[in-house]
Design brief:
- It is a single chain.
- This protein is an alpha+beta fold.
- It has three domains: 94 residues, Chitinase A, domain 3 (Roll), CATH 3.10.50; 51 residues, Thrombin, subunit H (Beta Barrel), CATH 2.40.10; 66 residues, Alpha-Beta Plaits.
- 23% of the residues lie in helices and 26% in strands.
- Strand 10 and strand 11 form a beta hairpin.
Length: 291
Amino acid sequence: MAEHATSEAAHSKSGDLILLDYELWAESGGKMELIDTTRAELAQKENFTLPAGFEFGPRPHIVGGDDFPSALETAIAAAPVGHEVEKDLTPAEGFGERDPKLIELFSMHEIERLPEMRREDAELNIGTVLTIRGRRGRVVSFTAARVRVDFNPPFAGRKIRAKFKVVEPVSEPVAKALALIDLTYGRAKDFAVTWHEKVLTIMVPDRAKFDLAWHAASKSRLIERLRTHLHPKAIHFVEEYVTPTAKEAKAEEKAGKAPDKASDTTKPETGDEKKPHAKGSHPAADASAKA
């Protein structure tokens, strides 16, 4: 195990917002399997892909949070800024031992009512990560009427190896706000943020305006995090709806009424429908989709 440290190097403390560069491995069949990384070159080598909406590169991270096992969070806090650290974790130190009692059965009706399942681009698959009654789990099987969800941590019972580097602390207010948006909802680059006299203004993108996951869960969680890390006097969420001109409205109406030649050759609907698909907000937390 290679660890680097110097007495002069700065360290993080619990609650700090940092940029973290890392690779995370889990033992599988006597070999180590890459389960999450911020490193594009390594991901290409290991044929690892990120969930939609995420990009490679150092990611925002709240030290001492719940994205990683507590033993790894402790190691991150102790790591000197700018130094590469490697840490091996036993199953107990990592995601714990596997508990069969944490695999539970739910009706499809209840699953379909979850906010993340009502997203336009959602599907239900083996490995889909869901939040049910405040707990996160992954789908391990389903029928037309029932869904079996595993609430065990994603890699319970497996040895974990982490290589990471605390790149830098995030301290500037706008950078902090964008980092927290990325952690809580994702797609921070779609949001416009300003900070003036301790008033935070966030322009909400079209995607979030009509996203039940944003309104039902992410927005309230984000407000809590913004208050904790920025202590603003006020937080303004701005939603802009531009009224089209008469000419634009007429063009839209004409386009809507125009016949779709391609649709004339399509086959009649069979009644089959796509099932919702829940996407996680943090690849490390939602790596269960690959477990």
